[in-house]
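Sequence, please.
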């Protein structure tokens, strides 16, 4: 009977094993798979208690599923055993193939470790191979490459005996398939978590892109996205509605340009110097109608995707009003409030920009400066005027111990052209003429007609002087009834002709409040020369003006 019944028993066990494995493959989650592993041991493998201990990320093992006893599940489920304690257990027991058995006679040394278990005391075995309540049978759960992912512990065989060869073989087969099922379930779980995380990231990305799109499109100030690198570097990819309205250009047309195509020619250097990462610049951009608008550009670099192309995000702010206000303030600071002409400070600034501290290299340093010693003042340049109004130099040897050159001469800039007095003759050297103008008879107009009339006369004189010079010449008001004209590239005869024309332009009657008044003008001509200061040049022209004024009778001077 035994020889005939053994195949039948094995066939029945195989059917139960097949049924248990089929249940493993139908589990939908990792938790369901772990519970199916524990339940399969109790339902099909022939043990009344089973627990699945799963390796955590930190290496310790947690009781993830218990089957066969509600009390054992309540006590053990979720408890953690250290990896060291488990390694000790798996290393000390008897080897039954891939199983590890620790008999009750040796297991007492494990009673103090932290591995969760459910055991009750019982009497000594009454016959060989009888299962003792303190016996421990463990089946390691390993992946195909030998990585430990958990341990399956079983207890209380149904027949009350330690499993024989067939029972051990069945448990090993089941454990092997359970490890595969758990690995697959963990992989699916990780993939599901990754998919959920990816979906959340994609949703967040879509939300971020939508937020950026709305912020970009509906921003109150201009914004643009341009390409970085490659053949299309700087080409605008997108431009929002505010920028299109600011420049008067449709979005489709904007994509044909880069900012270098739209910037004012004088501001192209400013644009090129602007850093891509966090750079700022104030410059002018061209509108569709050909006019220009002042804007502030602020750049930042963004990536289209994680490894995608880098793009340049540019914020464009309209600063036309602020720039107009700044220019207005600057104009007020540098121009006369009555006539609108450059004032004394602006005149000196323009004149100083043409002068350097080193005299013409055609003259020796001492000769060019004309040294004069004053007590406590060191050596100073000294000038007077010759008969034609040119600065006259008094050459002499500097005293012993004096420097061979002017004190601390500054080298001119690389593109500086020395200002020198002109030479006589039609082919002679040209110079920068400084025409100092003082009105004759203006005080009497103020006294007889009042300051309102005097202001009107000054405005008209300023207009006539401006109309009588070239576009690049400067007409400035020093104050009161004194004006100065800077005219570059003139010879002595041309400067005299200009002074005559301007005097003749001033003499005609000036209509004020239904009447008319007349003023005359006296002109003195000086010449800008490097090595002189702006004040010295103006003083020389002022002296020539007084020489010219004294040379005419009072009747000739008084024209109004």
């Amino acid at each position: 009977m035994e020889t005939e019944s053994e195949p039948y028993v094995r066939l029945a066990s195989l059917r139960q094993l097949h049924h248990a494995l089929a249940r493993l493959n139908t589990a939908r989650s990792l938790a369901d798979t772990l519970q199916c592993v524990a339940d399969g041991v109790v339902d099909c493998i022939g043990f009344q208690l089973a627990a699945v201990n799963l390796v955590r990320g930190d290496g310790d093992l947690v009781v993830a599923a218990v089957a066969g006893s509600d009390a054992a599940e309540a006590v053990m489920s979720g408890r953690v055993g250290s990896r060291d304690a488990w390694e000790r257990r798996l290393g000390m027991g008897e080897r039954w193939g891939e199983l590890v058995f620790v008999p009750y006679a040796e297991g007492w040394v494990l009673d103090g470790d932290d591995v969760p278990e459910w055991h009750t005391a019982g009497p000594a075995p009454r016959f060989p191979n009888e299962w003792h309540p303190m016996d421990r049978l463990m089946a390691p759960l390993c992946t195909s490459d030998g990585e430990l992912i958990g341990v399956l512990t079983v207890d209380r065989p149904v027949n009350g005996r330690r499993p024989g060869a067939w029972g051990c073989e069945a448990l090993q087969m089941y454990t092997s398939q359970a490890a595969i099922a758990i690995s697959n379930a963990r992989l699916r779980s990780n993939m599901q978590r990754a998919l959920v995380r990816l979906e959340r990231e994609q949703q967040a990305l879509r939300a971020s892109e939508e937020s950026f799109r709305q912020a970009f499109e509906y921003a109150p100030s201009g914004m643009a996205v341009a390409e970085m690198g490659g053949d299309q570097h700087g080409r605008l990819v997108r431009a929002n509605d505010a920028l299109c309205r600011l420049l008067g250009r449709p979005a489709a047309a904007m994509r044909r340009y880069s900012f270098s195509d739209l910037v004012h020619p004088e501001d192209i250097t400013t644009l090129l110097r602007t850093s891509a990462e966090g750079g700022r610049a104030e410059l002018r951009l061209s509108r569709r109608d050909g006019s220009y608008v002042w804007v502030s550009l602020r750049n930042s670099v963004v990536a289209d995707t994680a490894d995608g192309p880098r793009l340049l995000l540019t914020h464009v702010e309209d600063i036309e009003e602020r720039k107009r206000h700044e220019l207005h303030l600057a104009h007020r600071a540098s121009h006369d409030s009555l006539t609108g002409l450059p004032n004394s400070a602006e005149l000196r600034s323009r004149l100083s920009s043409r002068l350097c501290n080193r005299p013409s290299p055609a003259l020796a340093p001492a000769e060019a400066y004309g040294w004069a010693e004053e007590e406590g003042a060191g050596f100073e340049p000294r000038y007077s005027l010759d008969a034609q109004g040119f600065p006259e130099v008094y050459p002499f040897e500097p005293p012993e111990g004096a420097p061979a050159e002017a004190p601390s001469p500054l080298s001119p800039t690389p593109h500086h052209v020395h200002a020198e007095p002109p030479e006589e003759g039609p082919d002679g050297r040209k110079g920068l003429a400084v025409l100092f103008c003082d009105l004759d008879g203006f005080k009497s107009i103020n006294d007889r007609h009042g300051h309102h009339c005097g202001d009107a006369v000054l405005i008209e004189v300023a207009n006539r002087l401006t109309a009588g010079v070239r576009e690049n010449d400067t007409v400035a008001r020093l104050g009161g009834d004194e004006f100065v004209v800077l005219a570059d590239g003139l010879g002595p005869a041309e400067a005299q002709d200009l002074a005559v024309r301007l005097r003749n332009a001033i003499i005609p009657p000036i209509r004020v409040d239904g009447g008319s008044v007349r003023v005359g003008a006296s002109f003195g001509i000086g010449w800008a020369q490097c090595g002189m200061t702006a004040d010295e040049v103006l003083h020389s022209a002022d002296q020539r003006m007084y020489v010219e004024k004294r040379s005419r009778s009072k009747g000739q001077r008084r024209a109004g």
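Confidence is low (pLDDT under 50) at residues 1-5, 363-385, 387-399, 402-411.
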